[in-house]
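pinned: reference chain
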Amino acid sequence: MTGDESGDLTGRRLGNYRIDGVLGKGGMSVTYKATDVRLGRKVALKVIGDHLGADAEFRERFVDEARNTSAIDHANVVPLYDFGELEGMLYIAMRMVDGGDLAGLISGGPIAPVRSLTMLDQVADALDTLHNRGLVHLDVKPANVLVTSKETSREHVYVADFGLTRRGATGHRTRGGDFLGSPTYAAPEHLRGEPLDGRTDQYALTCVLYACLTGSPPFKGDVQTVIKGHLNGEPPAISRIVGLPAAIDEVIRKGMAKNPADRYPNCVEMIAAARRALGPLASSNEPPGPPGQAAAATVQQAVPHQARQNTPPQGEGGPVHPYGGQQPGYSQQGPGPQGPPPGYGPPPQQGGYPQQGGFQQGPPPGYGPPQHQGGFQQQGGFQQGPPPGYGPPPQQQGGFQPKKKSGGAKWIWIIVGVLVVAGAIVAAIFVFSDSGSGNGPQTTAPNIPVGPGGSQSQSPQSSLKAPPTSISIKPSS
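pinned: its structure tokens
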């Protein structure tokens, strides 16, 4: 049996493998979903058709992939079951991973930091194991990271496609000089054909981390634009694309340093640095939002619970504290609450429910205003206006005080009262003074002469002598 020009062997049988469908196509092979009829298990069968197998260079790389894959016994490297050649076609039978790949996840947009770091930490560990054996993968990209949730309680990833893996190699190219690999995630030394080591894969893994957190690779555009970016450009800051701390930008810069000597010692350390840079957000299950949200999210997760309890909720205008709290209300320095909650008047400057330090929400429901002169006058006050049902607090110091009458009218009535009392006192003095001197009111009318020729008779007092014209003064002895 020979393969057709399209390379599709679906429905046919190759040795003990029944080919059920196409999983994917690469530059030199086709991967099929197949069944091992001897064992009754599903496998991923990678095949080079006879029209490609005749190329000695393709055959060499394909055999290298089988040897390199089988040499790595790691939980995050796709296990190899079988390798051989049948009817002029080379094949590799590998574990069938029931899931998708990381490229499919990234196509949906940014991935939550905790999920990104959990998956890439597994990739990093697999790559470091490869590097410790002197091998370099050379084609680290999202499409070669297989993801499944069917095998363990968490998402499990496999690093796949070891077709370009080399030991102590320089930048790998075809004999015709064509670059082999994905330029979207290629390190500068790989593009230039310089010596390679594990730091080359670290550069590519950092690009993959960038894509997970932002939803796209660091350099985009046509092939030449992407290559120029890797050779000479700096990736756009992640913190300007999504709401993540600026510290993650330094991790990306170091992991994608143009000089391999400036990168991290290994891939696991790069992921650990990213975890530290993200801080509390490294545990976030939410994909990063727009830029500008990082500070608020970091503070919200970093501030202790009790401190967050005393922080005014956004948009409510004031702190919400437990009854009887000691914290001052609208007195903090700098930007703070913008006013009392809707429906309340302006907060009093002093006064409040009778408790030292005040409380923050007025008296408990069901209590009327405490019986104190001037309303809520105790030192410290409360911070959010009167309890529900009370009118707005007055502006003057002292809390809720009843409205005073006009001062002018009050004083007029006082003056009038004083004048009335004073007049009564004066009248009483005159009356009682006359009766005390014997000249009280007469019971008979006096004889009043009308004039010299009056017809009235003279009263007995008219015969009295005239008063003396002079008085003699006797010297004292």
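why pinned: The first helix runs from residue 50 to 53. The first strand starts at residue 13 and ends at 14.
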